[in-house]
Design goal:
Layout (H helix, E strand, L loop, with lengths): L1 H9 L8 H12 L13 H4 L7 H34 L7 H22 L5 H24 L2 H25 L4 H19 L19 H5 L8 H12 L1 H19 L4 H19 L10 H5 L4 H30 L3 H33 L2
Helix pairs in contact: 2-4, 2-6, 4-5, 5-6, 5-7, 6-7, 10-11, 10-14, 11-12, 11-14, 12-14, 12-15, 14-15
Protein name: ABC transporter permease
InterPro entries: EcsB_ABC
Keywords: Membrane, Transmembrane, Transmembrane helix
Length: about 375
């Protein structure tokens, strides 16, 4: 992507008027990245209530800690978009620090409003300040991009000054809204865990179970007999739960898109092999899905059948993914011999993973549960 972006920027001229509106939108959206991280939990509302006066010092520390991630994101985004601005406007690389400082000041104002929001009787005030910040953000960035960076910086300083003064008044007068602060923190963590859950299993984050009656035909193909007990159970939990099926679907789509937009043999080989491994590795925890259910302990089924069922499920899923990746690779690569080599490597990887690597990992997982 960096290579394509670099070549794209080289072909641009000042007539490319879409660049600055695009950057305006990107910077404004990136200001929404990063929330105030208070790390408060439900028991704190009871046990920390006598220390509420001292919470001001703690929240100031939490505020400082909450700056790191959004500031880093803004640094990267402004840095990445600078070549686009230099190629299409009168902005130079020397203006980088002014532009970066501008968005940092706006982000500080955004976090200060969030800090006010966890105090009582601040709903109306934070809404008004939020509107002011939105207008100030658009105005400041627009002035930066179309007039002069230092003029936009003045607007940002004024917006931050107003928000800062109001925040000081709120902290001195208003008591802390514990319930709201805890609720907002829980929502913040849930968003982070939900994002991580797109790529891996997150313990404690409950997944949805869906009926998916249209997949009953797949389950009905598994014979209802003792030797197929775990084959049925693992197939059922994979098809009807979003934890594993959603994970496989997302990684397959991401890997497929990466392969579709690449026509380099070595890169395609690395991407496809990596995603096949990731999918297989993330499916291994399904082995212990029923370990804490009493009924499965009473089944007259040997533990070896359980491991074989997981291996059987893995080989079916991985071969399906490998088939999809192989079709994309053979379509996109002009070097069909190279594409065939990648397909062969993927097939070998799938067999080695399910027959050699997975059994060893599952045995270790089995021992850790004893």
């Amino acid at each position: 992507m960096g290579l394509y972006y670099s070549e794209f920027v080289k072909s641009l001229t000042p007539d490319f008027f879409i660049a600055r509106p695009f950057v305006l939108i990107i910077w404004s959206l990136c200001l929404l990245v990063g929330k105030l991280a208070t790390l408060l939990k439900e028991p704190d509302m009871i046990f920390l209530l006598p220390k509420e006066r001292q919470m001001t010092t703690y929240l100031k520390t939490a505020f400082k800690s909450s700056i790191l991630i959004p500031f880093s994101v803004l640094l990267l985004v402004v840095g990445i978009t600078m070549p686009l601005l230099v190629a299409t406007s009168n902005i130079g690389f020397s203006d980088f620090y002014l532009l970066l400082l501008n968005v940092w000041l706006l982000k500080l104002a955004h976090l200060l409003i969030q800090l006010q929001n966890i105090y009582l009787n601040t709903e109306k005030k934070t809404k008004i300040e939020g509107m002011l910040l939105s207008l100030g953000t658009l105005g400041s960035i627009a002035v930066n991009l179309y007039i002069a960076p230092w003029m936009g910086l003045i607007i940002s300083i004024l917006v931050l000054a107003v928000v800062y003064l109001e925040t000081g008044k709120v902290i001195k007068v208003n008591p802390l809204n514990w319930e709201k602060a805890i609720t907002l923190e829980r929502k913040r963590l849930k968003k982070i865990y939900s994002f991580i859950n797109l790529f891996t299993d997150v313990p404690g984050l409950q997944s949805d179970i869906k009926r998916r009656a249209y997949l009953d035909g797949v389950l009905n193909k598994i014979k209802k007999e003792q030797g197929q007990t775990y084959n049925y159970l693992y197939a059922r939990v994979f098809l009807r739960g979003t934890e594993y099926s959603g994970l496989v679907l997302r990684l397959t789509i991401i890997g497929g898109l990466a392969l579709f937009f690449s026509d380099q043999m070595i890169l395609d080989g690395i991407i496809s092999a990596l995603f096949v491994y990731l999918i297989g590795f993330q499916l291994l925890p399904i082995y212990s899905e029923f370990d804490y259910m009493l009924m499965t302990q009473l089944y007259p089924v040997k533990n070896e059948e359980k491991m074989k069922a997981v291996e059987k499920l893995l080989i079916k899923i991985l071969m399906s993914v490998i088939t999809i990746f192989s079709v994309i690779v053979m379509i996109r690569l002009q070097d069909k011999v190279g594409g065939a080599i990648i397909v062969g490597i993927l097939l070998l990887e799938g067999i080695v993973f399910t027959k050699l690597y997975a059994p060893k990992r599952l045995k270790k997982l089995d021992k850790s549960l004893i």
